[in-house]
Input
Amino acid sequence: MNKTIKDYDLTGKKVLIRCDFNVPIINGEIIDETRIDASLKTIRYAIDRQAKVILMSHLGRIKEEGDKQDNSLLSISIKLSEKLDQKVLFIPQTRGLKLETAIKKMKNGEIILMENTRFEDLNNEAESKNDLELSKYWANLADIYINDAFGSIHRAHASTYGVPSLLPNGIGFLIEKELKALSYFANPERPFIIILGGAKIKDKIGIIDKLLPKADLILIGGGMSYTFLKAKGYEIGTSLLDKESLPYVKRLIKEYNDKIVLPIDLNVTVEFSNTTINRIVSIENIDPKEMGMDIGPNTIEQFKQILNTAKSVFWNGPLGVYEFSKYEIGTKKILEVIANINAHVVLGGGDIVAAANKFDYKDKVTHACTGGGATLEYLEGKKLPGIEIIEKIES
Ligand code: AMP
Output
């Protein structure tokens, strides 16, 4: 069993909590607050016990100086202050005198949020490549490290791996809860059906051959499905495609033909927009100028029939561009289906949970996990560095 925050006396200690504040932000506005809400229990526990709480998180990907503006954690500190009803002091630095002085001045029960850990990626990818010097620097700021960033436990970054390797450590309440919910899938009631969609094809496609032996069926939709349709020889127009994965996908289709369920019709248009004219088309009739934006009504019906037989469901990635009203239907209808079946249903990942929130189904499933990649790697049976590095105690 992993050590948790409850295994430490926190009073007067500087407790560095790695949260996952990687929330969708459009034009400076936080679109979905699920991950912020999910962090509150651990933060409240620490301040109630008079710890000096230092929060850290990544947000988005930082590849160049220009990425910084849209990915500052300033707006998160404002939202957190509101939710905790307590000032969260934002320090616009990942290291430096300001940060060090602010920490020195902290009183028990106070909270500081430092700037996006990935700003350090402009410094030879120090965060993402787990730079030792950066890990030492961050570890020196605190007495105890707590990881509550479930969405990042599959990454061996400085903030998730390097720092806890140098400090007494434990997990927070969120990670504890998520791991418990996912442990169900070690031996799920059958039929066990996985639904896979979304747009991060490169990140996720390689996992499918590890999931296929575990599931009874995998329903594939969204941006993930077109590489499969292309591999089967269909015209997919300008839909999302992972060309490099075609040979691998062809092998999967051959090996697991009876387990992979693909869309039979699509909602297509000619531009990635909610305003261009769309049409429903069977997969045999996609025009080279068209792109798939959602699954079509016959696919929805087919997925529904299958899901009505399920006893366990795991779903990662929306089945269409649910942010656009014209292409929300597939995701919304299938959420409605799984909300009404008698099965253990877990949603895994930021976007499918955001969609469930948007369409009001989040409370109608067994559990909504905050991390997509992390849940998939957990199901795959991979060792997760962010958990591996946490101290163990006898259970
Ligand atoms: P992911 O992080 O992999 O779960 O991807 C989530 C994103 O996938 C959402 O922003 C959706 O808009 C997007 N998405 C779903 N279906 C499609 C599609 N057919 N084409 C493009 N993007 C899609």
In short: The chain has a mean pLDDT of 96. Residues 197-200, 222-223, 240, 292-293, 317-318, 320-323, 349, 351, 372 surround adenosine monophosphate (CB under 6 Å).
